[in-house]
Design a protein that fits this description.
The chain is an alpha/beta fold. The chain has helices at 9-19, 25-36, 50-59, 118-122, 130-142, 163-173, 196-202, 218-224, 233-247, 265-275, 300-310, 336-339, and strands spanning 2-3, 60-61, 66-72, 78-84, 87-96, 99-103, 107-109, 124-127, 150-153, 186-190, 208-212, 251-257, 280-286, 317-320. The structure holds iron/sulfur cluster.
Length: 341
């Protein structure tokens, strides 16, 4: 059976015409039902003939995750625990009016193995398909009173490690015949893998890029992010410059401050030096302690010293208040459902 929610418009049109022998105009009708009106069954598509609906039913399915739980944090962040065809997923809604951001997962677990991340410690359990990525967004959108305005691919998994499915999902969710999230409102977050950022650049689109740097010292970075052994900081910088040069957009450098690991002034100096010739903004995030992992949050004083060092030296620095810490929906805290498998 075709997982129809995972077909971008051009694929849907080809399939309808070549395989189901339908007229091309059917593609827009169907795409609108699936991605704009977000029908969860073919029976809802009342302006399609019964015969056509019956053909669709016998050849395809609409993925509709079962919501197994949702946990709301005091700051309004909601973590959704979803049951997808291939496993459990965790998706987070972050309300920061007027922005309502959904953080999507792209893999079951992750093979990057970041030492401070619960998902990384859960190991890799498989890639998500395009429909599984897209349907997370639709489930959260259906449960949100406010229109979802932004999407970040920053949940479980490394998006560049599941590129084909992620690329299709990007095209579907930014298609103006569907849910129509603007390209500039969608951010792909990566730890940086060889050739990964180039694939985003090659799309020739305006999607945002966030790089989880966590240290500008190669040795520290490899200690925190074992997959960084495969890519040097200088190569990563070249990749980022290719992105900024091609898109005209700044890249966001994500830096999670962890006590005793990357919070020293030596690390701050390395970060200031590394980032000075990259059009970027630096997002500092104070680590959320994860049960069973040894890493801790730096003190207020250490955090402030780090920021005070960066402010006069860097183009733009923000300290991002972590959202959803109490529901384990914050950065590095997803994956509990995988661990419990
Ligand atoms: S921080 Fe991101 S890339 Fe690293 S293990 Fe966790 S999910 Fe994977």
């Amino acid at each position: 059976m075709i997982r129809i929610l995972g077909m971008k418009f051009s694929d849907l049109e080809t399939w309808l015409v070549d395989e189901l022998h339908q007229k091309p105009f059917r593609a827009k009708q169907l795409f609108t039902w699936l991605h704009h009106r977000r029908a969860t069954s073919f029976d809802e598509m009342t302006d399609l003939s019964l015969k056509f609906r019956s053909i669709l039913k016998s050849s395809s399915v609409i993925t509709h995750p079962e919501q197994t739980d949702s946990i709301a944090s005091e700051d309004g962040t909601v973590k959704f625990l979803l049951s997808l065809p291939s496993g459990p997923a965790e998706t987070v809604l972050i309300p920061e009016p007027p922005r309502f951001t959904v953080c999507l997962s792209t893999q079951y677990g992750c093979r990057m193995g970041c030492k401070f991340c619960m998902t990384g410690q859960a190991g890799f359990h498989g890639n998500m398909t395009t429909d599984e990525i897209v349907s997370q967004l639709y489930t959260v959108a259906a449960n949100s009173e406010n229109r979802v305005s932004n999407v970040v691919l920053m949940g479980m998994g490394e998006p560049m490690d599941n590129w084909d499915a992620v690329r299709n999902a990007l095209e579907i969710i930014s298609d103006d015949r569907g849910i129509c999230i603007g390209q500039r409102k969608i951010t792909v977050s990566t730890v940086g893998i060889p050739g990964g950022i180039r694939k985003l650049v090659d799309m020739g689109k305006q999607y945002g890029l966030a790089v989880s740097l966590h240290s500008a010292v190669q040795e520290t970075r490899e200690m925190l992010v074992p997959s960084a052994k495969a890519i040097s900081l200088s190569q990563l910088k070249r990749d980022m410059l290719e992105y900024t040069g091609t898109t005209g957009r700044r890249v966001t450098l994500e830096y999670c401050l962890i006590e005793g690991a990357n919070d020293s002034l030596k690390e701050a100096a390395a970060l200031a030096d590394y980032s000075k010739d990259i059009p970027c903004k630096i997002n500092l995030l104070v680590y959320n302690a994860v049960p069973d992992l040894e890493w801790r949050q730096p003190s207020e004083q250490t955090t402030q010293k780090f920021i005070d060092y960066l402010y006069p030296r860097c183009q733009a620095v923000t300290l991002r208040r972590s959202r959803g810490g109490e529901v384990a929906g914050a950065c590095g805290q997803l994956g509990a459902s995988i661990l419990k498998k």
